Structures are given as C-alpha cells and as structure tokens.
Amino acid sequence: NAEYMGVKVIIWLRHVICFVNAIWLKPAVVCYLLHLCFIEKLLPFRFTVSVTLPAAPSGLLPVKQLLKIMSSKCVPEGHTKEELKSNINIPSSNVLQMLNNDACGDAGSNSATLRYETTTTLCPVIDEFLGGGLLTGKLTEISGISSSGKTQLGMQLSLGVQLSEQHGGLSSGAIYICTEDKFPSGRLTALAKHFAAKFPSENLTEKGMTDRVFVTHIADASSLIGCLGGRLPCVLRRGVTRLVVVDSVAAVFRCEEFRGDWKAKDKQLQQLGSLLKKLAFEFRCAVVCINQVTASMARPSAVPQPALGATWAALINSRLMLSRTERVYSRRGTGDADEGVPAKSAKYDVVVRNIEVVLSARLPKGLCEFIVDGEGVKGITKVPV
After folding, report:
1. What is the DSSP string of 163-200?
2. Cis peptide before 296, with omega less than 30 degrees from 0?
3. Are 207 and 274 in contact (CB under 8 A)?
4. Are 209 and 243 within 8 A, CB to CB?
5. pLDDT band for position 304 (50/70/90)?
6. Which residues pair with 135 in a beta bridge?
7. What does the longest C-alpha to C-alpha distance in the chain come to?
8. Distance CA 136, CA 281 (A)
9. Which of 360, 368, 361 lies closest to 384 in space, CA to CA?
10. 3-class DSSP state for residue 385?
11. What pLDDT does 329 receive?
C-alpha cells in the first residue's frame, strides 16, 4: 500500500532528525525517548500484510492489477467499522466489500459479497432499456398519469419474478399491496395465462402464477407502516417472495388525516421510505412503489410532477416516469375476443406510451416507447435523450 509506505518513510525521517538533535542538544534526548514511546500509539492503524502475487510472463505486474490485489488484501485489524470508514483512505467500493465481509477484525471471513440481481419485466425491449430489469436491494418508483400503464407494469413484474434466472426472474413470489381501488384480479389472471403459455419450460400454470402473488389491501399510512414493520418482514424472512409492490404510495397520504399537517406527513413519509429501503436491502428483494402525479393549477401547461414532493424524492433510489402520447400503434389481434383481445383477423390501434428514466445511478437518461394490449406491456423502441 503506497500510502502506508509513505507514512513509514516520514516516521523514520522523524527518527533520524530527533537522533541528530539529541547529539547536539542533550535535553532533546528526553523528547526523543518520549517520541519513541508514543509514536506507535499516535499511528491510526497498523497493517500486517501477506500477499501472494500471481506470476507474470515478463516478471512485472501492471500497476492497476497490483493496486487491485493490494487493496483487496490490506485489511486493518482490530478496529471498528466507524474507524474504518473515517480514517482509512480506501475506495468506497472496497470499504463496502470489507464491511459486508466482516473484514474488521477478521480478514479471513468467507461471507458472501454484496450482489445485486435484476428481475424481468417480461418484455425484452424494456429489460434491455433498464439494464436487465429492476434491481433487487433498491427502492424503485414508477410514476405517471392515470391510464399510463403503472398497474399493468406492476402486475407484470409480479409474474416475471416467478420465472427462473434463465429467463430473468428470481424463482420467487410477489407481495402486492393495494391502497386504492379493488385489485384487478381478472387482468392478472389473463396475463398469467398468457405468460404461462409463453414459457412452457418453466412448468408454470395460470393458477400457480396467480397463487404466488400475495395481495393485501391497506387504506391508510399508519396501517401501511405497521404492515411494513411487522407482517411483511415475517413473510420475506421465509424466502418465498422477493418482490414488493405498493400501488400506490401517494393514495395513503392524500387523505383527510394529513390535511394541513405537513410535519406529520413528512415524518411518516420518511419512516415509510426507510422501512422500504431496509426491507429491500435486508432481504435482497426488489421494492416498487407506484406513485401518482400532481399538476399545477396556476400553470395548466406545465408537465405533471410525481407526487409527495422532495421528501419522498430523496428516499427513492430510482424513478421511472410513464406517460401517454397522442400516437397510435396498429396491431393485429392475437387472442380470443372473449378475453378482451381482438380476434386474429381483426386490426386495432393502441395508444403509444413512454417510459422514461428520470432518476438512476446506473442507467442513462432515455425513453422507451411501449404499448399495452391483451398480452401485457410490450416495448417498441428505445429513444435516447
């Protein structure tokens, strides 16, 4: 570790200077002895490093490879996590790995490193646009105007998480918390029938897929927070579910309970966001919050903004914005008209919608056009911004 070696060089130079001063000035001998007694205690950390370097054809290792090996091996011993984060100048990614591997005090820990997975939206175009799907361990918001496809996408995610990793899923069920109208179970059944037939190798059935979507209805913020802090962790701890959808998070805060009381609203918003992020991180599940939008009465032409303001925006990890366009996309029927899907011989038009990455640490900003038909949400093309 180059930085540590630099510290050692400086210390030895100080030793030499103090020794030379001691020869010419006897009182300085006392200072030098005190210096020797306390210099090691003044050091923040002591490193003991044993590194086996891989053999290189030329006998020399590239600098980047050497730094990577040293940063993974130079682990401080006998110090707390707070000291590790505040006193050692190590890249944040290595610090995170050390903390997750319990490197503080036990450099030989075999704990698994932190790994983020993705779950499919059941649409290859949208999956590619989102870098493989939605991340686990993160809080994702899907906002948009009415009839923009938010609930459709939420239900499709609830079915996609049940697929195996081969098809982009997590082989788990989903928890769907409904806070608004009655849950559209008929639409979920139609989607389950379609995707069960689309992935025959998964050996999934329509009833089997719908039975793995656990739906609960909650009407107010206090009950929602109580559920997230009590019942939900018990279910997630069993390992049978790895997706949580809240549809919608704004509904429980747009009631008479919080009318005019902004402090109470912000406090519960912060509590709700903290609980959701804790659940996502602790159980390695994907958490999706569907949000409504607000419009300015003073400026009717202004673009609608996600509800709940800056307090909520500071809590989420990523934000996807859905919207409708005035364009239509011509389709030919592929299913049974009795299920709401036009017959194969019929042509029909569907509204083109947009999904936009508004906030994300890993995704570039961009647009993806999609439609919603009898077979679910389908991406059309990506439009970079």
Report:
1. S-GGGT--S-EEEEEE-SS---HHHHHHHHHHHHHH-G
2. no
3. no
4. no
5. confident
6. 118
7. 106
8. 8
9. 368
10. coil
11. 87
Paired residues of 213 in beta bridges: 174
CB contact at 8 A, 195 and 233: no
Q: How far, in Å, CA of 340 to CA of 342, rounded?
A: 6
For residue 141, the model assigns a pLDDT of: 97
* φ and ψ at residue 25, rounded to 5 degrees: -135, 100
pLDDT in the model for residue 202: 92
Q: 209 — phi, psi (to 5°)?
A: -75, -40
Encode burial over 60-81: b for 16+ CB neighbours within 10 A, e otherwise. Answer: eeeeeeeeeeebeebbbeeeee
Bridge partners of residue 76, in order along the sequence: none
Alpha carbons within 13 A on the beta-carbon side of 89: 5
Q: Which two tokens stand for residue 209?
A: 């897929």
The whole-angstrom separation of Cα 158 and Cα 101 is 32
Which residues contact residue 96 at a Cβ distance below 8 angstroms, ignoring those fewer than 6 apart?
114
Which range (66-75, 171-180, 364-373) has the least confidence?
66-75
Taken as a whole, the chain contains a residue count of 385
Cα Rg for the chain, rounded, in angstroms?
A: 28
Torsion of CA 80, 284, 222, 251, to 10 degrees: 130
pLDDT of 53: 54
pLDDT score at 111: 36
* 240-281 residue pLDDT tens: 999 999 999 999 887 656 666 778 888 999 999 999 999 999
pLDDT digit string, tens, across residues 196-219: 999 999 999 999 999 999 999 998
Report d(CA 79, CA 77) in Å as an integer. Answer: 6
CA–CA separation, 330 and 75 (whole Å): 61
Q: Which residue has the higher pLDDT, 116 or 307?
A: 307
Q: Please check the confidence at residue 312 and state whether its pLDDT lies above 70.
A: yes
Structure-token pair, residue 19: 């020794």
pTM (2 decimals)?
0.69
Predicted pLDDT of residue 116: 78
| Residue that is written with structure tokens 């009415």 in the block | 146
Cβ contact 169:161 at 8 Å: yes
